[in-house]
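Journal club side-thread
Mid-discussion, someone asked how the predicted structure for our own chain would compare to the paper's figures. Pasting it here so we can look after the session.
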Amino acid sequence: MSVITGDPAGLSREAESLRREVDGPVLLPGDEGFTTEVTGFNVAIRHTPALVVGATGVGDVQAAVRFAARQGLPVAVQATGHGAVMPVDGAVLITTGRMHAVTVDPSACTATIAAGTTWAEVIEHTTPHGLAPLCGSAPGVGAIGYTLGGGTGPIARTYGFAADHVRELTLVTADGQARTVDAVREPDLFWALRGGKGSFGVVTSMTIDLFPVATLYGGGIFFPAEDASRVLHAYRDWVGTLPETTTTSVALLRLPPLPELPPMLRGRFVAHLRFAHIGEAHEGERLLAPMRAVGSPLIDAVAPMPFAAIGSIHQDPTDPMPSWERGALLRELTADTVDAILATAGPEVEAPFAVVEVRHLGGALARPARPENAVGGRDAAFSLLIIGAPVPELFASVIPGAAGALIGAVEPWLTGGCLLNFQGTATRPEEIARVWPRPVLRRLARLREVHDPQRVFRFGHAVPDLPEGED
């Protein structure tokens, strides 16, 4: 092994050799295009890798992983950078944005997706066939990272976690080998990847199930600050009446005074009800009626829509921005839970949050996958997501303290777990460990010992080592 960390001249020589092996760019710090290549959606995270490889295919990924092994360097992967939670320093960073291909098999109701593909690209290819993927609320997010982390999208109560509907994965492991992984070929890895995210290698493609959903009844309703308490308390009672065909959430938003926002929303505190119903519009309208009667909406945009417009339900930001988030899971949402949320994040409080969302889980999300996978959080009734104000100067202390106070306020109702994709800045091993039930964590840790004993894939929410003596 030729370790070149701290030797820029040596790294430069080795990089020339790597450039002859790959089709994509190989960039060092200071090279033209380096900063653009390593910058992702979350601009608060500034990566400083030793080298970045813009992969164009499986061969490039293999070459990059083998290069890292020869040099004793860890490996990190970035598609869109929405999920960046820590800086990638001194590593080989593989960017997969050039690997964006979608192949749809309408007869099998499947799509095969390359590593850097976004959900928007998947939707573009599937909806002409009347088929829908289990995408997230933000179509600009990378499909593979989202799915490996579980994936709870706008129709999740109907169909379950996105990870529950993966047919096959191709993977480059720490030894540089490309593997095809499914329920028959390498079933242990297939189990671990679906819910264990990036701890076992670089997934270069994924085949997923599609569903016959061409339209839905969905959208959002924005209520003014003075209705926030009524909306949250009504929501708590209302969700218990909903069938699995309906997925909802409610978010407290502190909106900036941006000109692209509708005038009635600019610079305001609002409660945003998100609603998606799979089925007839008249049934969705009937189910939604009690919430429409709760207050005086500023905007009511719930209506029949093509699945291709699913991103309009949550209206997540589309432009790169600084981001800070934390999540938790709730076993129930009582009147006291709602009061605790309002007391720490409601309109009467000065809180450094952009979003505080309560998302209704249950339904298909509560049932085990077939075949089983490593996704945690199936025992929760609701998820709680806190997104800080996009002000990086507040990320170090002000926002974490306020978020800690909010999570502390709802502690009596927490399950103790968190959805992996909503872990955010909680990156200490003991924080990551809470994502999975203990037996699942033990199995993941044992498999990581087998497939990545050198901890090559150590960035982000990597599966932590078990405490000494636990096996």
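Post-session note: The chain has a mean pLDDT of 95.
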